[in-house]
Write a structure and sequence with these properties.
By secondary structure, the chain is mostly helical. It has helices spanning about 15, 40-50, 60-85, 85-95, 105-135, 150-155, 170-185, 190-205, 215-235, 240-245, and strands spanning about 20, 25.
Length: about 240
Amino acid sequence: MRRGGAGGPARCGDDSLGEQLLHGGPIPIPGHLKLPSGRQRILKRLRRTWRSRKALKGVTQWILDWGLPMAVCLGALYVFAVRAESPSAVYRAFTLIDAPRHVLLWPASLVGWLLVPAIIGGFAGHVIAERISRAKSISTHTLFRQRKLRQRLRPPGLIDDLSGYFHGTVAQQDFVDAWVRVAHRNDWVRAQDHWEVFVRDAMSTRQYAHLDRHECLRQVQSAARMVLRVTARSCGLCLVCERRR
């Protein structure tokens, strides 16, 4: 494991780093990389899983971002409407067969009139437009490859847990030394959070839009390790910290 001196690397952006005060002075760069904490809490695992969804494309990501919350709201509306009326009354108001006879049936009627056709039309339009645009467009990473059904249905991977890098390859150890010790002053929690944020937002950029869910995550993490390591070593800072300042 690489160990930096107490003075740390040459810094750029000293004014912004000077804002990180501890007992009246800048937070010094630790001389040694601290051991990561033991078990990861379930909430942090769920957060990492949720942020990893950005590796998905188009409709799949939309279903997770908007489809599931909308389905939960509609399910709750249906339950309360059924308690006020009968299931058949809710169905007939939702499908616009009958006029709503209860205040809770009005939202169901409006959803059946406006929201459902808009979602179905938007979904169909997106799929058709996507297929048309890809009819004569093949990205280089898919050339000559045969994707089996298992590969198509396999769920996406998760953004890496940096604690696993501590005993990983030499490159991984060098990255966490720069990212955790230098850029975040041995704060593993904040380093993991900002690592996930950087990878999540990078996966949403246009340059990775043509990649499938697995290749997208792999390439973004590979590029992120190079970029973040350089900024940490040369400037002693975190890009996410600087943007959020």
